[in-house]
Design a protein that fits this description.
The complex is a heterodimer of chains A (about 250) and B (about 240).
Chain A: H1 2-25, H2 35-44, H3 46-79, H4 82-97, H5 100-111, H6 116-140, H7 145-153, H8 158-196, H9 204-213, H10 217-250
Helix pairs in contact in A: 2-10, 3-4, 3-6, 3-8, 3-9, 3-10, 4-6, 5-6, 5-8, 6-8, 8-9, 8-10, 9-10
Chain B: E1 2-11, E2 14-24, E3 29-33, H1 40-48, E4 55-60, E5 67-70, H2 82-92, H3 97-110, H4 126-138, E6 144-148, H5 156-173, E7 176-181, H6 184-190, E8 193-197, E9 204-209, H7 224-241
Parallel strand pairs in B: 3-7, 3-8, 5-6, 6-7
Antiparallel strand pairs in B: 1-2, 1-4, 8-9
Helix pairs in contact in B: 2-3, 2-4, 3-4, 6-7
Classes of the chains: A mainly alpha (about 250), B alpha/beta (about 240).
Chain lengths: ~250, ~240
C-alpha cells in the first residue's frame, strides 16, 4: 500500500509546490500556468481533447498493426535464409537510425498533402517496425539448441520446426517487441503530426501546436497531460497483456 | 547395432574427439565415463547422426526414427503440457494427433507420471521433468537410446531411483543404450560395459565389463561385483588422469 501511495503523494507535493511558486512569484500565465489553470483548461477543453486523443490513439494503433504485420512477414521471410537476413539487416538498421522527423516531409508528399492521416500512420509504422522486427528475428533464432537437435533427430519439416518450435520459442521476444513498439507508435504519431504541420488529422499534436500559436500555454499543458496519461495507459495495457501471455507460456 | 570406427571430430577450437572406436551390440548398455570436455557428448551426437565425423566412419543399423536422445536438461517445451511434449516425436513423424497422445499417455504411465500428463514442465519437479523427457525418448519405441548425462542435475536419491527406472524400462523392450556420465558408481550400476574416455581429445582409455543381472537387485551396490567394477574403472581413471579425474 505504501509503495502504491508514494508516487501519488510525490505528484501531489510537486503540484502544490508548483502552484505555490506560480502564485508567490507572480509568473505570467503564458509563461508557466499553475496546475489549477491547467486543470481548468483541461475541463474546458475536455471533449475536444478526448476526440483528439482518440484520433492519435487510433492512428498509433493502426500504425502498430501495420508495423506488426510487415515486421512479422519480413522476419519470417528472412528466417529461412541466413544470406537474406544478412542482406536485410543493414537496411532495417538504416531505417531505424534515420530520425523520423527527417523522412516525414517526404512521406507527407507521397501520402498527399490532403491525407495527413495516412502520412502519420505510415511514419508511426516506420518507427514501430524495428522493435517488432528485431524481436521476431532474434526470437526465431532463440530456440533451445537441444530442442533444435531433437527436431533435427526426428527429421521435422521446416514448417513443423517453424510452428512447433521457432514461433512458440519466439513468443516472449515478440511480446516484448510489441510493447516497445506500442510506445514508439504514439511518439511516432505525435512527431509525424507535428511535422505534417496541418490540422487535417486533428490529433493531440495539433492541439499542442495550435494552443501554442495562440500562447494558450495552459491548453498546451492540458494536451500534453492527456498525451502522457494516454501513452502510460497504453504501456500498462501492453505490459499486462505481456505478463498474462508470458505466464501462460511458462505454464505458471 | 551401431559403431564408431576410428572417428575424429575437429571443431574450430581444435580436436574434440578421437581417434575413437566404439562398437555397440543390440540390447547392450554402455556407459561412457570421462571428465568434462573429453568428447563424450560429441560421441553421442555422432551415434545420433546429429553430427558427422571429420575422419572415420559411423555405422548405424537403427534408422533415424529408431534413435532417441535424452539430454542433460529435460529440454521440454515450456508452452506445452507434459503429454503434448511426450507426443511430439510421434506427431513430427506424422502419426495422427489423437493416436500420438494416447500412446504418449501410456508411456507417461510407464514412467510413473500418469497424474502429471496435463501439467506444464514448470510445474514438474526436476526428477519428474527428467521422467517426462525419458518418456518422450521412449514413445517412438527406439532401438537405440542415447542418454547425455541425464541425471547430472538431480539429487542422489532421485538419480538412483531414475537409474533403476531406466533399467526396468530397458528390460521391457531391451533397446541398446549408450549413456554419458561422470559418475563412476552410476556407470558401473547401470551399464554392462563401462568405457573410460581420456582427457580431450577423447580416446578410449580402457573398458570394464560389469556382470550381474539387470535390473539390478536391491543390494547390488553392496555386492563384490559392484565394488570390483568401481575399483576397475577407478584404476583406469587414475592411470589416465593421475588421480585428478
Amino acid at each position: 500500500m505504501k509503495a502504491r501511495l508514494a508516487p501519488a503523494l510525490l505528484i501531489v507535493v510537486l503540484l502544490l509546490i508548483w502552484e505555490a511558486a506560480c502564485r508567490v512569484m507572480n509568473v505570467p500565465l503564458y509563461f508557466l500556468p499553475p496546475p489549477s489553470a491547467i486543470f481548468a483548461a483541461l475541463a474546458a477543453n475536455a471533449s475536444l481533447l478526448a476526440v483528439s486523443a482518440m484520433r492519435t490513439l487510433l492512428m498509433a494503433l493502426e500504425a502498430l498493426a501495420v508495423a506488426s504485420l510487415c515486421a512479422t512477414v519480413v522476419s519470417l521471410g528472412i528466417s529461412f535464409s541466413r544470406a537474406l537476413e544478412r542482406a536485410v539487416r543493414p537496411i532495417a538498421v538504416g531505417l531505424q537510425v534515420t530520425p523520423v522527423v527527417a523522412i516525414a516531409p517526404l512521406v507527407v508528399i507521397w501520402a498527399g498533402v490532403d491525407h495527413p492521416g495516412r502520412a502519420i500512420v505510415a511514419l508511426a509504422a516506420v518507427v514501430a517496425f524495428f522493435p517488432i522486427f528485431s524481436g521476431v528475428t532474434s526470437g526465431l533464432a532463440a530456440a533451445d539448441p537441444d530442442l533444435e537437435r531433437l527436431f533435427k533427430l526426428y527429421e521435422a519439416s521446416r514448417w513443423d520446426t517453424l510452428v512447433r518450435l521457432r514461433l512458440p520459442s519466439a513468443l516472449p521476444f515478440i511480446l516484448e517487441g510489441h510493447k516497445v513498439a506500442a510506445g514508439l507508435a504514439i511518439i511516432g504519431a505525435v512527431v509525424a503530426e507535428f511535422v505534417a504541420g496541418s490540422g487535417g488529422a486533428q490529433g493531440l499534436a495539433w492541439r499542442i501546436l495550435e494552443a501554442g500559436n495562440r500562447l494558450k500555454t495552459a491548453e498546451m499543458f492540458a494536451a500534453i497531460l492527456v498525451l502522457a496519461v494516454m501513452a502510460s495507459a497504453l504501456h500498462f495495457v501492453f505490459q499486462a497483456m505481456e505478463r498474462r501471455a508470458l505466464s501462460w507460456w511458462r505454464g505458471r | 547395432m551401431a559403431s564408431l570406427e576410428a572417428v575424429e571430430v575437429d571443431y574450430v577450437r581444435g580436436r574434440a574427439l578421437g581417434p575413437f572406436d566404439l562398437a555397440l551390440a543390440a540390447a547392450e548398455i554402455v556407459a561412457l565415463v570421462g571428465p568434462s570436455g573429453c568428447g563424450k557428448s560429441t560421441a553421442l551426437r555422432l551415434l545420433a547422426g546429429l553430427e558427422s565425423p571429420t575422419q572415420g566412419r559411423v555405422r548405424r543399423s537403427a534408422v533415424r526414427g529408431e534413435t532417441s536422445v535424452v539430454f542433460q536438461a529435460p529440454t521440454l517445451a515450456p508452452w506445452q503440457s507434459a503429454l503434448a511434449n511426450v507426443a511430439l516425436p510421434l506427431e513430427l513423424a506424422g502419426v495422427d494427433r489423437r493416436v500420438a497422445r494416447e500412446r504418449a499417455g501410456d508411456v507417461l504411465r510407464r514412467v510413473g507420471l500418469a497424474d502429471a500428463a496435463e501439467a506444464r514442465p514448470a510445474q514438474l519437479s526436476g526428477g519428474m521433468a527428467m521422467r517426462a523427457s525419458l518418456a518422450r525418448a521412449l514413445v517412438t519405441d527406439p532401438r537405440l537410446l542415447l542418454l547425455d548425462e541425464p541425471f547430472a542435475a538431480l539429487d542422489e536419491i532421485t538419480r538412483r531411483n531414475l537409474a533403476d527406472d531406466v533399467l526396468a524400462l530397458w528390460s521391457e523392450r531391451r533397446p541398446a543404450i549408450v549413456f554419458v556420465t561422470h559418475n563412476v558408481e552410476e556407470a558401473v550400476y547401470m551399464a554392462s560395459r563401462v568405457v573410460v574416455i581420456s582427457r580431450g581429445p577423447g580416446r578410449v582409455a580402457g573398458a570394464v565389463s560389469t556382470p550381474g543381472p539387470v535390473p539390478r537387485p536391491a543390494d547390488y551396490r553392496l555386492s563384490p561385483e559392484f565394488r570390483h567394477g568401481v575399483e576397475a574403472v577407478s584404476r583406469i581413471l587414475v592411470h589416465s588422469y593421475g588421480g585428478q579425474a
